[in-house]
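check these tokens.
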Amino acid sequence: MNNARHPKQMTSVLEPRRHHIAAPLVELDHAEARTTSLLVAEKFGKLYKNVLRAIENLECSPEFARLNFEPREYVDDRGKVQPMYCITRDGFAFLAMGFTGRSAAQWKENFIAAFNRIERELRRITTQRALPDWQEARQLSFRAE
């Protein structure tokens, strides 16, 4: 997955945490559920450099890679800029297929459940915004009379 695009500097809610509060597995980023390569490495107990290498060596199409693995940067605890990826549900599924073992299976389930929760909430919000406000509906009914 050689990606010729230049990575973006972190600007979303997915910016790595600098403290020890448990980060959610999945968050909304520009109206899409995503996780990060940092969280994947941490939760699956993998060396971060190995997760980056696994992403970069995925045998997927360039289009799939572009849509599901967005290169970004973060500043580590030493103040050094490091690469990372924001990963969609599909990208996560493709990447995690290669992780095996009981612990990996449990983390796959946890991530999938987190993606489901975020996507359900996004659908709920989208549906709620699409419905006409009660006052608007009431005004429309008065105009029709």
Observations:
- Residues 8-144 form one domain.
- The first strand starts at residue 8 and ends at 9.
